[in-house]
Amino acid sequence: MPIYEGVIDRYRKFLPVSDETPDVAMGEGNTPLVRSRRIGPELGCELYFKLEGMNPTGSFKDRGMCVAIAKALEAGSTRVMCASTGNTSASASAYASRYGMEAIVLVPAGEIALGKLAQAMAYGARMIAVRGNFDDALQIVLRATEEMEITLVNSVNPHRLAGQKTAAFEIVDELGDAPDMLCIPVGNAGNITAYWMGFTEYREHEHARSLPRMMGYQAAGAAPIVHDRVVEEPKTIASAIRIGNPANWQGAVKARDDSGGTIGAVTDDQIVSAYLRLAREEGIFCEPASAASVAGLIQLGESGEDLEDKTVVCVITGNGLKDPSTAETTAKVELEYVEPDYAAVSKILKNGRAGG
Ligand code: F0G
Question: What pTM, to 2 d.p., does this model score?
Answer without folding.
Answer: 0.97
